[in-house]
Amino acid sequence: MPNRQLSPYILKRILFFILFCNFSILYAQSDSLAHKSYEDLDSLYLKYRYNNPKKAKIYADKLYAKVQVTKDDKKIGEALYRKAFIAQSLNDNDNAFKYVENSLSIAKKINSDSLILKNIALKGDIFSLKGDYENAFDKYLSAKNIANSMGNINDIISINHKMGYLKKQTKDLKEAIQIFIENLELIRQQKSSDLERLEIKSLSLLTDTYQRMQDYKNAELYVNQALQKNSINKFQDLYIYNSSNKFIISFLQGKYNASINHINSLIHTILESGDRLSLTTSYLYLGKNYRELKECDSVIKYYKKIEKITSEEDFIFPEMEEVYQGLAICYSSLGNNEKSIEYQELSIKLDEKNDKINVDINNKIHEEHDVVPLRKKIASLDDYGQEQKSLATFWYSTSAILVLSLLLFFFLYRKKQQQAKKRFQELLQTIDTLEQVKTEPQSLKTTASIITDESVLEILEGLKTFEEKEYYLRQDCTLAFVAKKLKTNTSYLSNVINTYKEKSFKSYLTELRINAALIRLKNDPKLRAYTIKAIAEEFGFKRQETFSKAFKAQTKILPSHYIKSVKNQ
Known about the structure:
With 569 residues, the chain is mainly alpha-helical. Helices cover 80% and strands 0% of the residues. Among the domains are: 236-365, Serine Threonine Protein Phosphatase 5, Tetratricopeptide repeat; 428-568, Orthogonal Bundle (Arc Repressor Mutant, subunit A), CATH 1.10.10. The longest helix has 48 residues, at 392-439.
C-alpha cells in the first residue's frame, strides 16, 4: 500500500481539534470546582496538602477565591493560611510570607488564638527552611506559649517537634533525642488516632537523630516502626522521609550498591509527589555512595544537581558544605584544580557562616526567655529618667568620679585582656608540643633501661595503648575500668601511676581529657559550635561545671574564652 502524507490543511484541523479538547477539559475542571462548596474544596485541600502540594494549591486558590466574596474574615484568614502553607511546601517563600502576614493580621483582628498560633508556627517553618534558626526559634517559642495557654495537646507536641528539630540542626543531638522521646511517650499515652501523623513524625525524627549520633541500632529500630505504621498512600511526605532514612542507614553500614538501588527506586515516587526539594537528600547520598565506590564523575553529576536545585529554589540545604567539599575533592582527583579551589573556598565560607549560626542559636536556646522585653526596659528607664530630673545637679557633681572609675575599670580590663592573650599564646605553644607528641609517640626504650620490674613495664605499655585508643574519653572510665583493661588490680595500678606519671589517677585522667579537648577545639570548627555542656560530654565529663573547672585549673582560662580566642586567631 503506498505511503500517503497528510495535507497541511488536515494537519491544521487535527492540531486545532487537540487544542480544543485540552481547553475543554481544563474549562470543565475549572467549572466543576466553581460549583463545589467551601467544605468540599477544604476537604480536597486537606486530602492533598501533604501528598501532592501542587494539586492542593489548585484547591487552596479556588477556596480563597470563593471566600473573598463572602466577606467572612474567619474563612478568609483560614484560606490565606492554606495558601501560605502550600507556598511554603513548594518553597515559594516570598508568597508564603505575604499570605501568612495577611492571615495573621486577620487572626489578630478577630482574636482567633488558633489561627494566630498556626501562622506564627508557619513563619517559624519558613525561617527554619531558609536556615534562619534564631528567628525560627523565636516564632516557635511564641507559638508554644499560645499552645500551652490553649491546652491543645496536638499543637504542643507539634511545636516541640519543631524545637527539637532546631536542636538537631545545631548539633545538640542528646537534647533533641530527649525532646522526641518525651513527645513519643506523650502521644502514646493519649491513645488517639488523631495523633497518628505526629507519632510517625516522632519516630522519623528519632531515626534521623540517632543516625547522626552513629547509633544505627536505634536508628533502624525507629525507622522500621515508622514504615510499619505508614504507607505511601497515607502520609506520602513521611513515607519519603523514612524511606530516605532507610537508604541512609544502608550507606552508613557500607552497603553502597543496595543504598543506590533503594534511592533510584524512591526518586520516581519523589518526582510524582512534586516535592523537588526532597530530591536533594537522594542526590546527596547517591554522591556519597559513588564517592565510596571511587566514581568521581557520578559524584559530580549528582552534587551539581543539588547545586542547581538549591540555586533555583532559593533553598538552604543543611549539608551544602559537604557537597562543596565533595566537589572540591573530586575535581582535584580529576585534575581540574581551578574548579577544586573554587569549591574549597565555597566550603570554607559556608563553614564559617554555619559556625556562627550554631553558636548563636544554641546560646539563645539555653537563655531564659521569661525576662522583660527590651522595649519595656527602655520605656521603664525613660520614665525613671523623667522622674529624676530634679536630681540632675547631683549627677553632674558625681560624673567626674564616674569617669575616673570607668577609666580605671578600662585600664584593669585591658591589662586583664593582655594577660589572657599572653596565656593563650603560651597555651598554643603547649598544644603544638602535645600535637607533636601525639604524632610521634614516645617509646619506652629509655624507661626500660631504668625500670627492671617487668610488671611495671607491662602496665606502662598498657597505659600507652590506653592513651592511643583514647579510652579516657569514655564517661565510665574509672580506675577499676582501666585496671580491668590492663589485667591488674586498682591498688597496683594507682601506685604505678603515682610513681611513674607523678600524679594521681584522677589528675592523670583529667589532664588527658583536657589535652584532647585543647587539640580538637583548636582544629575542629564544628566542635567549637557545640554548647559547653555538649563539649564536656564529648571529652568524658558528666557535668559542664566539672569540665569548666578542670579546664581553667589546667589552662588558666575558661573553655568559652579559649574557643573565642581560637576563632579570633
